[in-house]
Amino acid sequence: MLIALVLSSGVLAFGALFYNSTITPFDRPFFLSSVRETIIATKVNWMCHCANFVDTTNYKIDPIAEPKENDYFFIEMSDGDHLGEDFFVENKYVKLTGKFYIDRGIPEEFKLGHIEDKPDHARVFKVEKMEVVTKGAVH
For the whole model, what pTM was predicted? Predict the structure, then answer.
């Protein structure tokens, strides 16, 4: 009985470690909204692998407003292309047209490093079209 308890505890610990260090199909969003949106977004350079884009539309209306946790999202390119970090450093604001997934998750192209835990699930915007609005270094 004691051996079974110790063995099952070890399996649970291994399962928790595997879940926190591996992105599984259960981490992906599944249900795409039917509403197509066009938003102006900018990338936030967090010191973690978190949802790192924010819709700036509300902040042009009220520049004093602070983004809330729900305002941050991941992007996923609809054609499977992956844009490098340099693209978003060079282009401060981008106009994105696409659809948000209804459920939260981690986008398909998100890759974990060797020692990182996977990020919390967040909103994901599937980009159909992208256009640079302004160029310049992000401050």
Answer: 0.74
